[in-house]
Amino acid sequence: MAGMKEQQFTEEKPLLPEQRGQDTEMENCETLMPIGDWKEHDIETPYGMLHVVIRGAPKGNKPAILTYHDVGLNHKLCFNSFFHNEDMQEITKHFVVCHVDAPGQQIGASQMPQGYQYPTMDQLAGMLPSVVQHFGFKSIVGIGVGAGAYILAKFALIFPDLVEGLVLLNIDPNGKGWIDWATGKLSGLTSALPDTVLPHLFSQEELMNNTELVQSYRQQINNTINQVNLQLFWNMYNSRRDLEMNRSGTIINAKTLKCPVMLVVGDNAPAEEGVVECNSKLDPTNTTFLKMADSGGLPQLTQPGKLSEAFKYFLQGMGYMPSASMTRLARSRTASLTSGSSIESSRIRGFTHTDSNEGQPSTCARPPTLRPIASSAPSHTHPLACRQFL
């Protein structure tokens, strides 16, 4: 296809591995990812060129795992730590993986010319079919964070047959009001762009403590992403409209996501309210809502192992990743699972366990570190509802 280039691409080590005490684990992970295994492409779409990075080739009828990052990040800053986690490596070796960078957000991107009109959020979603067609994907399982979660949800609403499942972190389905817009505009006039974006990414506690992760990302956002391009993406995200979806029965001709969805948000994350709102708009019979303790604003960075565990169960609920193929994960979790919590042939309907008398989430003997949140409507009980993610 015209405008496409292919290069060998090597992923760098995750940011701040020493902070999470995972030096050895991360080094072992990199041995699972051979040098030159990733390839970089620029793909022509109806709304301009799109930068993607891919590993592997379509495997039978399995979907591709396609990611989309948040505003202020790119695929490296958003997903490196997560995809280098050893548990995630065990999962992704069974799938082709495709990382999408929003226009102009990749490392080393050229500055957009003066007068360039950045694609709208709808148009960003409309660029993805070109990626699916280019690589011959039959379908995808999407993993999106923040703005990327919004884009993938929009894509699934427009092209439901191309999406088998979605993992949406920190999604806000609501458009910005005038007050929010004015507040953001004023903040942009008085603060450097990275400091304007950081409150969107991290919790107030993380920002107040100025954690090592926050310091690193302030520097990375400033040094690795073109600031003009970032401002364009930031402005467009803050001009988004409401996602037009509502739970069936709430309004006439309600439209919502048809595929299984796992919503994820951290404790006290800035997106918590938006994720709760999104949950109220989805079908409770195929929606899982996870609130992760001690994870801050970006759980994929601070709790990659626990998120990998949840993603494994999500895929198994869709009929992928049978226990026999989960060599390392199966071994490492044996001690925490009992025969009564077998996941074989079960379909994920939600991790929420609802008490039949009270209609409230029941209390597990040991509060799980990865906590479920009750849906606003009854949901099916998942066999691991009261299991702790170790």
UniProtKB/TrEMBL annotation:
The record's subcellular locations are:
Cytoplasm, Cytosol
Q: Where is this region: Disordered?
A: 1-23, 336-382
UniProt biased composition (Polar residues): 353-363
A cellular component term (GO) from this record?
Answer: cytosol
Q: Which UniProt keywords apply?
A: Cytoplasm
Top-rank lineage group of the source organism: Eukaryota
Compositionally biased spans, kind Basic and acidic residues: 8-23
**Low complexity composition-biased segments:** 339-349
Concerning its family, UniProt says:
Belongs to the NDRG family.
- The protein, known as: Protein NDRG4-B-like isoform X4
Protein source organism = Salvelinus namaycush (Lake trout)
Classification of source organism: Eukaryota, Metazoa, Chordata, Craniata, Vertebrata
